[in-house]
Amino acid sequence: MTEARITVNGKETPISPAAPHTTVLDFLRERGLTGTKEGCAEGECGACSVLVARPGVNKPTDWVAVNACLVPAAALDGQEVITSEGLATVGEPGTPPALHPVQEEMAVRGGSQCGYCTPGFVCSMAAEYYRPNRCAHADPADGADSAESADAEHGPNGFDLHALSGNLCRCTGYRPIRDAAFAVGEPTEDDPLAQRREQSPPAPVATEYAQDDSAFLRKDTLAETLRLLRERPEAVVVAGSTDWGVEVNIRGRRADCVVAIDRLPELRELRVESDHIEIGAALTLTEIERRLDGDVPLLAELFPQFASRLIRNGATLGGNLGTGSPIGDSPPVLLALDAALVLADADGEREVPLADYFTGYRQSVRRPGELIRAVRIPLPLSPVTAFHKIAKRRFDDISSVAVAFALDIEDGIVRKARIGLGGVAATPIRALATEAALEGRPWSAETVEAAARVLRGEGTPMDDHRASSLYRSAMLGQSLRKLHAQTTEAVSS
């Protein structure tokens, strides 16, 4: 076991003497890299974003932006990090560093006012700048006004504004920031960070980092991890830390033992078999989105509405299901897809239908020492699908109600219906009564109206600061009516 170290802006830096719960944000700032800021400490504002070298989808390495405020520094043992300070190119002694292209565009287009959020924007923008296959639709040299020829969320240079959806600005205004994003060109051939994409990312390393009475542990294999969890069933298991990081920062939670599973190869596979798709529980949502490339339309509809790109770069399906939250966005979708979970412990594996997984508020059938290894989605997929997320903001918000539909409609008859609901009960649930009200009946306005009344009565919605119980019930019924209005023409044709 070697000393835990992170390569920061090209320089190896020991993690010690930081405590195991110390975040990457605090680790960097304590070492003088104060461009990385704390705004919210819960992954909402993006002021803390940094770049991490991760296994790529289209190239050996992708530069991925993550929230440094959520990730424990020990979780990046052996990995490479670039901060806003590391983007600039160091020149000759006595000369100032040359600005990176995204920094240059932010400066010349007025994208920074107080500057507090700017380093985070720059890192998120740089991740999109280096995204492989970012297609240019027009010449960025034409200026920001050329963006009008593209859709509202993509620039003429192929820049996807969702890359910045987790970054907030409170004084500059988003127009100049968007102009800067839509003006950046392609990386040059001698760009060192672009060249770095052609080499493999750092291999995962086993980590045993302990200070005082707490430890952060990462094993090489799933078998070793499961044996460790049998010995330490009280350990907190983390992947992207997008949930645990909030507990540490906002609620002051500490753990005697944290076990990382995010780099375990057995949990990072994605396989398409003849009768199912198997998705590793530790693949990030961004990795799943880009690897599936729209092959599961219902998941493709979910991903842009699931938090922000910064969160999706760390969050996993295993983590979203493992927390057992009744308002998680992935469970309703996976329920509609008839998904099952592969649970593993030191004695072996078992498969559990997701519909049987949740047993109560943040409770499940998962036993102590057991992990979610993979999610299995049966094939073929239902052709009529939709995900409706009702929230106060269009993107990057927690659902008041989430509804996922998957229907088989043949000759105008609903042959099979699966409906997953979130935010209306102590657990994510299937709308079994509504499914029964649809199956075997015509996909008609009359059937839908009757089923919508049934759907309004599903679950036990409550009043809270996000929505009233009456509003949640009303949105359930409206969601089915909306699906019918959206699909009637397509089904009839």
Question: What brief labels describe this structure?
Answer:
16 helices, globular, five-stranded mixed beta sheet, 493 residues, alpha+beta, 28% helix
In brief:
This protein has 493 residues and is an alpha+beta fold.
Structure, described:
- With 493 residues, this protein is of the alpha+beta class.
- Helix content is 28%, strand content 21%.
- The chain contains 16 helices and 20 strands.
- The strands form five sheets. A five-stranded mixed β-sheet has the order 2-1-5-3-4.
- Strand 19 and strand 20 form a beta hairpin.
- The termini are far apart.
Q: Helix proportion of residues, in percent?
A: 25-40%
Describe the sheet with the most strands. 5 strands, mixed
User: Mean pLDDT across all residues, rounded?
Assistant: 94
User: What amount of the residues lies in strands?
Assistant: 15-25%
Please report the total strand number as a whole number: 20
Termini separation comes to 63 Å
Number of alpha- plus pi-helical segments? 16
Radius of gyration: 23 Å
Sheet/helix structural class? alpha+beta
Give the strand order, joined by hyphens, for the main sheet: 2-1-5-3-4
Low-confidence segments, given as residue ranges, are 144-149
Shape summary: globular
